[in-house]
Design brief:
Blueprint: H1 33-57, H2 66-77, H3 101-110, H4 119-145, H5 149-160, H6 163-169, H7 174-195, H8 198-212, H9 219-234, H10 240-251, H11 253-281, H12 288-291, H13 294-297, H14 301-313, H15 319-326, H16 332-350, H17 358-374, H18 386-406, H19 411-442, H20 458-471, H21 476-492, H22 495-501
Length: 512
């Protein structure tokens, strides 16, 4: 990860002149290469130690939906290929008709638990390498923008010291594989723009298809990545991609055709999943109640929450009957959420003026997303008060000022523009099509409003933020002081904050 060679991940060699950054700050790099290597190792060791501690310590009722994810992994471990929905699986929701790649991989790896570890702990430990992979590709993406070591170190600090990312990385969650696929897909796409190797484009497409088989909300990311690819290539000669493909096939035909075969298989698997769902149930991502009967769907805590609320909202259940049904939900977090949704909707019916306008919701969305990336929003929350987020907003404003003042339409500048488009589109899609829609349906501003939903694009956010923050200043001493201050801010807001605020309920080994 810290090597200074300039090889692409598929083995092509590129000279240093091909990866020069935009206007560099005056003076020599304040971080010697050897110091860079040691600091990188130290940050990664610290990251790994924290994740192992959390994996061994956190209660299973804390991480978001971990009980469900772990349960589905166990279901997949008992079959050769894909399982069927049945009474034994209803408590976990659908186990067919869903993106299955994460569950399939974890289910098969679970069979290797010969160490006497609890299955949950073993699965958590298997998720840690996925987080390291995301950090690795964050550094690689950063090097497409700049070779500045200080920027690369700051990116690594930011990626490995965001509280929600740390908790997820040590939990059983398909988000971990989706985040890795997203980081890889974005890196390989922009590496293709830089190095013009069709193998890099093939790698990006395969990662995109793998992400779609991992999590449904990966689909809008694919849409914007393909759009960026098309727009970028329209600026080039019509034969550009074909020339790259011809050169790639001529270099190693067996390897190239192998990649193309994998892409074709991944396309067919996605068509089978999403196309099959649409043909059978009228939606690429059907609800459990659309696939199974209502009695079966009520066995799944999340589906039960939605069904109880919908029946109350439509007048099919009285408030008290809905409360009684909600009390039958076994998961304490979802039971409490259902109670809150019912009370909140009744209050909104009596006080319509409490509905938020789109502008007010947008500001709430921004604050909540920021706070729940640097804080924790799970079945137990650990959020920072608004005052603690002021330094973070200041860092954002400085990075934005750096972008406005320092952006130039150089090759790496166009990479920054492309990454910005990806981030803004994905965030906008998430806010309008998922979060705002859920608010209109449930009347609860915080429902589906989780910072972890932005993690698929957090790598380009950190790369761009770190780069333009440090580009704002030319003096190396100022840049070093600023990077150190931001690094200390992120580090203190993660593990030290967690240790200072975690109550016994957070730990699996302490009495509650």
């Amino acid at each position: 990860m810290t090597s200074s060679d300039n090889r692409s991940p598929l083995g092509q060699h590129h000279s240093a002149s091909q990866i020069q950054s935009q206007a560099a700050p005056a003076g020599p790099d304040p971080i010697p290469e050897k110091t860079m290597q040691w600091l990188t190792r130290l940050l990664l060791i610290y990251f790994g130690a924290r994740l192992v501690f959390l994996a061994l310590s956190i209660s299973s009722y804390v991480p978001p939906d971990e009980v469900t994810h772990a349960g589905i992994c166990k279901v997949f471990s008992k079959v050769l290929l894909l399982p069927d929905n049945g009474p034994d699986t209803w408590q976990y929701g659908l186990v067919t008709n869903i993106p299955w790649l994460y569950y399939f991989a974890m289910g098969k790896l679970l069979l290797l638990n010969f160490f006497g570890l609890p299955d949950l702990v073993f699965l958590r430990l298997l998720n840690i390498p996925l987080a390291f992979g995301t950090a690795f590709y964050a550094l690689k993406l950063c090097r497409l923008v700049t070779e500045d070591r200080l920027t690369r170190l700051l990116v690594l600090v930011m990626v490995t010291n965001a509280a929600m990312f740390s908790l997820l990385s040590s939990s059983v969650s398909y988000d971990n594989l989706a985040n890795l696929f997203a980081a890889m897909a974005i890196y390989y796409l922009f590496a293709f723009f830089r190095f013009r190797s069709a193998g890099l484009l093939a790698a990006s497409l395969l990662c995109q298809l793998g992400g779609a088989l991992t999590k449904p909300t990966f689909l809008p990311l694919i849409l914007v990545l393909v759009a960026v690819l098309v727009i970028h290539e329209l600026r080039r000669p019509a034969t550009s991609i074909l020339a790259s493909l011809k050169e790639w096939l001529g270099g190693s035909p067996a390897k190239a055709w192998g990649w193309l075969f994998l892409i074709l298989v991944a396309v067919l698997l996605n068509l089978q999943l999403y196309g099959g769902n649409y043909l059978r149930y009228g939606s690429p991502t059907p609800s459990m109640s659309s696939v199974l009967n209502p009695e079966a769907a009520m066995q799944y805590r999340m589906e039960a929450r939605g069904m109880i609320f919908s029946q109350f909202k439509e007048g099919k259940l009285s408030y008290m009957d809905a409360v009684i049904k909600a009390g039958e939900i076994t998961h304490p977090g979802d039971k409490a959420d259902t109670f809150r949704l019912l009370m909140n909707w009744q209050n909104l019916q009596q006080n319509p003026g409490l509905w938020l306008s789109p502008s007010a919701y947008s500001w709430l969305w921004f604050k909540t997303m920021t706070g729940t990336i640097l804080g924790i929003k799970a079945h137990l929350p650990m959020l920072k008060s608004p005052g603690y987020l002021v330094p973070v907003y200041l860092v954002m404003l400085l990075a934005l000022a750096g972008c406005v003042l320092r952006w130039r339409p150089t090759p790496s500048g166009w990479a920054s523009a492309g990454m910005t488009v990806i981030v803004l589109f994905y965030a906008g899609f998430l806010m309008h099509e998922i979060n705002w829609d859920a608010y209109q349906n449930y009347g609860e501003p915080g429902i589906t409003l989780y910072g972890r939903y932005l993690l698929p694009v957090i790598v380009p956010v950190y790369v761009l933020g770190s780069y333009y923050l440090l580009q704002l200043f030319r003096d190396q001493r100022v840049r070093l002081a600023l990077a150190a201050a931001v690094a200390l801010l992120f580090i203190s807001y993660d593990f030290p904050w967690f240790l200072a605020h975690a109550t016994p309920e957070w730990y699996s080994w302490l009495p509650r």
